[in-house]
Amino acid sequence: MSGRDVRDAAVARLREQVATLHGELVRYNLVAWTAGNVSARVPGRDLLVIKPSGVSYDDLSPDTMVVCDLDGVVVDGDLSPSSDTAAHAYVYRAMPEVGGVVHTHSGYATAWAACGEAIPCHLTAQADEFGGEIPVGPFALIGGDDIGKGIVATLSGHRSPAVLMRNHGVFTIGRDARAAVKAAVMCEDVARTMYLARTLGRPVPIAAEHVDSLHDRYQNVYGQSGAPVGTA
Ligand SMILES: [Zn+2]
């Protein structure tokens, strides 16, 4: 497959969406320097669109995004893809329902990752979005498939769309890139509030059945009818 084969309207739309979504990482203070990335699967094709490596968020544009196959090999783009591309690609290969992946080192969530501690569910907003605790994944070195394997092993069969990779940071998944960005924003919000709660005292639990009903309502009922979940 050559670059020319992937220059169509669907890929162009995703280049624009992925470039724009990186602005949300900056807006919500989830990233420092160039450390953080968003990718999107091209629906129905074995392709993903991802941030180039080491480029300032101010300099990202649809044209600078990189198109790779699901082995992380560049198909179209002038720049090298994010150094986390192998992890994103592994997730897309293993989890066909996933359409977007985000990685950040956002401060509060990564503090929990540094402690190797899952974020327990003591907030209704966490029950809504994550359906329980936000789990910790294994320690894994960058390069190869270890990070991707850790993400998939932790999130498969789990309600949480976010995993705290031990000593590293956050990976989130979603049905599309926007949903994965939302999960990254909410993960940091919950991590900060739970840090404050721990500092203030002893957080009180939510009964498991209430966590279940909150999650079910939010995922299935909340928002404008016909709109993607969680957009309102
Ligand atoms: Zn990282």
TrEMBL record:
Pfam families in alphabetical order: Aldolase_II
Coiled-coil ranges (or none): none
UniProt-listed InterPro entries: Aldolase_class_II_sugar_metab, Aldolase_II/adducin_N, Aldolase_II/adducin_N_sf
Broadest EC class assigned to this enzyme: isomerase
Keywords tagged on the record: Metal-binding, Zinc
EC number: 5.1.3.4
SUPFAM superfamilies named in the record: AraD/HMP-PK domain-like
GO cellular component, one term: cytosol
GO molecular function terms attached to this record: aldehyde-lyase activity; L-ribulose-phosphate 4-epimerase activity; metal ion binding
Cofactor: Zn(2+)
GO BP terms, alphabetized: pentose catabolic process
Catalytic activity: L-ribulose 5-phosphate = D-xylulose 5-phosphate
Domain Class II aldolase/adducin N-terminal: start-end pairs: 16-195
Family the UniProt entry places it in: Belongs to the aldolase class II family. AraD/FucA subfamily.
Protein name: L-ribulose-5-phosphate 4-epimerase
Higher taxonomy: Bacteria, Bacillati, Actinomycetota, Actinomycetes, Micromonosporales
